[in-house]
Structure formats: structure tokens, C-alpha cells
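Example 290.
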Amino acid sequence: MLERTRPFGLAGLIGLPVAQSRSPVIHDHWLAEHGIPGRYVPLPVTAEGLPAALAGLAALGFRGCNVTMPHKRAVIPHLARIDPAARRIDAVNTVVVEADGTLSGSNSDGAGFLQSVLDACPGWRAEAGPVLLVGAGGAARSVAVALLAAGVRDLRVVNRSPDKAEAMAAEFGPRVAALPWARRADALADLALLVNTTDRGMAGKPALDLALARLGAGTIAADLIYTPLETPFLAEARARGNPTVNGLGMLLHQARFGFHAWYGVMPAITPGLIRAVEATFRTSPAEAGR
Ligand code: NAP
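Predicted structure in complex with NAP:
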């Protein structure tokens, strides 16, 4: 029934702020590439407006939406179904308006991160060795759930506020350990993968406070940030000869899952798409966000 009311493929991004988002460029590029009539629109929504905005998606003819800060957790009570990974992460970044108008939620951030690491470092395997996450916010939880599902056996978390790292270890089980923030520089020697999941190093913010002197040779250094494309943390790791992965691949890969859910086509990350997204870094203020 609903299909008759939404021949035009509307989707969007609910968050605040959303004006800086690269997602419209990404999804509109794919819509044009696949000849699908539609548009992806930024939807600035306040906390007070969130229930009405979600309730209105079906009536407005939306196929679904992405969700970003600060609503990734707050959307959960408004959804009829949440997939197990999103439930474990306790955050949703993709909402699908089902044919009967009900809403389903999932989270593609962690899967997007994993795929971006494999794109940049095809030799990486879950069994390659310990992984250290710096930070224990929502993005860290999504990365942790994906790494554990992929089979990582030794996942360490270090966070400025120790309670959040300890909560992750308690919640996610014996493969996850919380390390003290003061010991973070000593924890780098035997890692296969080191991930900055904090916002430190984002344009306009101070660099991540982490000395890399003990970083193992060959450890992959990844950062979830993509504005700038190379944070001071990644620049230093690269200068030391370590392989690096920035946050752009994660952004692009997480978007593929939503596009597939809304339009039934799994889009590709092509050089043309990367050029279109990178052009936005030259034309708009260096602000982060989906
Ligand atoms: P969040 O839930 O607010 O978590 C922020 C994290 O940063 C916390 O661990 C926090 O530690 C830490 N932090 C903040 N200020 C700090 C400081 N001065 N020193 C040390 N640590 C500090 O945010 P989030 O949603 O997880 O997002 C984190 C980052 O990931 C952002 O840069 C975001 O843009 C990026 N991200 C990228 C993608 C992508 O597609 N590439 C997707 C999602 C997120 P405390 O607990 O101590 O405050």
C-alpha cells in the first residue's frame, strides 16, 4: 500500500546539527548513478521534535533515514524493531520505513568501519592480534561490537572517563578489557590495530593526547575522524611507517547499508563518489559529522 504514496525515493538524515553532513552528496550521487528518482535531505530535528519527526516519516513518503548525534540512542523507543547489533551497541544509525509504515532500526557504523580497514589493509584478520580502542563513546561501542562479531579475541579499551571503558568490558564479556587512561602510551607495543574513536584531532579540536613512541611496527592506526582526512594522530603514525586508515571509508561504507535497505540496490564506492565527497572538503568549512 505504502509504495503508492512514495514513488519518489525520499530519505534523509535526522540529527542536530546536520547542515555539515556529507550524506546528501553520497546518497544523491548513488541515486543519480542508478537512475532512481529520489533525494536525500538533511533533517535538523530537536530532541523535543524527535517523536513527531519519526512518526511523520511514513506519512511524508520517506523510505527511511539515517540518525546522527544526538539522537542515535533516543530513537530506539520509537522503533518497532531493532536488529541485534544495534541493540548491543545501544544506538541506531539507520531507520527503514517498512511497507506497513512501521519503523525498523539497525546500526551500520561498526560494519562500515571493518570494511574500511579491510579496504585499506586487505591483509588484516581478526586473529592478527590485540586491538586497542581509544575512547568508549557510541562510535567505540559500534566498532567493538563489529570487531567481536568478526572474531577479535583480545579487545582493549582505554577512555579518559574510566567508567565507560569498564562498562564496555563488563557488558561485552571476557574478550574485552579496560585499561587505565594513564597507561595508554604503554599499551601500544603488541597491537595489530589501534583505533582513535574519540573526537580528538577533529578540525577545530586539539589533537589526541597519545604518545606513539611505543607503537609497534606494522600496527594499523585507524581514526574514525574524516575532517581532516589525516588527523595529527594518523600523520604521526604514517611518519613512523605504520599503515593508516581514516574515517572516510567508514562513512561511505555505513551509507551503503542504508541505501540498500531503502532502494534495494547495494551501491559501490567508486572513484567518482570519492571525488564528489572530497570536493566538499574544499568547498565547505571543515566540520565533522555524517
Ligand atoms: P561520543 O559518544 O560523544 O564519544 C566521545 C569520546 O571521545 C568519548 O570516549 C570521550 O571520552 C572522548 N573524549 C572527548 N573529549 C576528550 C578529551 N579531551 N580527551 C580524551 N578523550 C575525549 O561520540 P561518538 O559518537 O562516539 O563519536 C566519536 C568520534 O567518531 C567523532 O569524531 C565522530 O565524528 C566519529 N564518528 C565517525 C563516523 C564515521 O562514519 N567515520 C561514525 C561515527 C562517529 P569521555 O567518555 O571521557 O568523555
